[in-house]
Amino acid sequence: MSLKRELLSRAEEIEIRILERDLSTQAAETASKLQLESIKKLAKLEAECRKLKAMARKASAANDYKSLTASSIGDESITDRQSDIGERLLAVESHSCKMSGLEMNECDPSCSDSRARAHATEFDQYKNWKPIGRNRTVHSVEINLMDDFLEMERLAAFPYALSGSSYLEAEPVSDKGNGSGNPWKEELESMINRTAELEEKLDKMEEEKNKSEMALTKCQRQLETLRSHLHEADTKIGELQAKLALANESRQAREEEMKDIEAKSEETKSQLRIAEAEIKTLLSKVVSLDSEVEKERALSTENAVKSQQLEDELSKLKCEAELQHENERRRVASFNEELKITQGKELAVAASKLADCQKTISSLGLQLKSLATFEDLMFDSEKSSDAISEGLKAHADDEQQRPDPRNLSSGRDSEAFQVSRGALRTKKGSNRESSLSLNSSFVSEKNRNGFGKFPPRGLSRVRNEN
């Protein structure tokens, strides 16, 4: 944004400078036009000055002619005066022809334009023209002095002029009476009238000359001011051209910067497009993730419900397990009581059976003593006592290895207790079977030998001691 603002400000400055340049060129054109117009005016004024100088010369020639006519009336003869007047008339006519030719040239616009252009080209040589003007002024001063001298001579010859004029006036009357006129007198009168007219014209020309000189001075001043303005305009044009060159350089630099900025903007646009594409893909991914999140939320809610249900079920199962545990404890306690009762009963039965066994053993010992030698009987008794002692030790070990039902806290303890109970029963059964097998072996041997009816002596003694 800042670069755009700078570019806009620079563009406005360039437009302002272009407008200033256009205005300066217009001012220079107007100054050049004014200069050409002033040059044309100067050419016209110079032509008028020349015309006025020609008229002044014509008037001076007429004055010379007057003075000569006035002096010739008293001094010279009429023939001499007529010859002089003719020469002066020829000179005046030739001069008038020249002036009329100049007037025609001045009236022609093409000639005036060509003269203005010539004066424009020769304006630099104006200084060289000034000494010529001075010579002309000196010449006019000399003419004026001659005019003054001739005027004095005319005043001196004034009485003769009066007499001559009266004579000339009388002559026409006589001529009229005679019926014939003098052409020289008519020419003289016409010349006098013409000189009067020329004097009037001369006065007018002098006034116009003064006015033209004033206008010339004004035009010269205007020309000097226009030259100064033109010089200032040239300097301004140079400054503006320098500024324009700087502005063009700055514009080129700004254009290069704009190109760089446009390239950067294109790069940023391409990056922005890529980013927009990535954003679109990410948005699609976000939408898919949102759908997945919603699904996961639904699943999580379902799982939460299921977990709540499972927790409820677990709590129920815990309650049931606690109840079962309590029931098992009660069962174990009752079983332990029953076990103690059964153990007591079994012990009583075992004790009774042991007593029976001892009785049978004692009877068998008596029979053996009676049937065999003392050593054989002793050997047999030792074997039987060892067998009995081993059976008692095995029974005691089984009772020690039996687990305590109070320490059992679950169904597994009860199962182990039942297993141990079965093992104990099997052991008891095996002990019983072993004792019975021993008894049966002894009885069978005694029956074979025929001594089953009589117990040995040693055993009877032992029983008596007991």
What would you say this structure looks like, in words?
By secondary structure, this protein is mainly α. The chain is built from nine helices and no strands. It has helices at 2-74, 78-107, 109-121, 126-156, 158-178, 183-371, 374-401, 411-449, 457-465. Helix 1 runs antiparallel to helix 2 (78-107), helix 1 (2-74) packs across helix 3 and helix 7 (374-401) runs antiparallel to helix 8 (411-449). Mean pLDDT is 66; it is low at 74-78, 102-116, 122-142, 158-181 and 403-466. This is Filament-like plant protein. Residues 392-405 have a biased composition (Basic and acidic residues). Pfam families: FPP. Residues 188-327 form a coiled coil.
CA radius of gyration is 87 Å
Structural class, judged by helices and strands? mainly alpha
Query: DSSP strand (E) fraction?
Result: under 5%
Overall strand count: 0
Task: Please give the domain count.
Answer: 2
End-to-end Cα distance, whole Å, is 129 Å
**Spans of 5+ residues with little confidence (pLDDT < 50)?**
74-78, 102-116, 122-142, 158-181, 403-466
Q: Give the CA-based shape.
A: rod-shaped
Count of runs of 4 or more consecutive helical residues: 9
Mean pLDDT: 66
Q: Helical residue percent?
A: over 70%
The largest pleated sheet is described as:
none
Elements, N to C (H/E): HHHHHHHHH
Keywords: Coiled coil
Coiled coil: 188-327
Biased composition (Basic and acidic residues): 392-405
Organism: Populus deltoides (Eastern poplar)
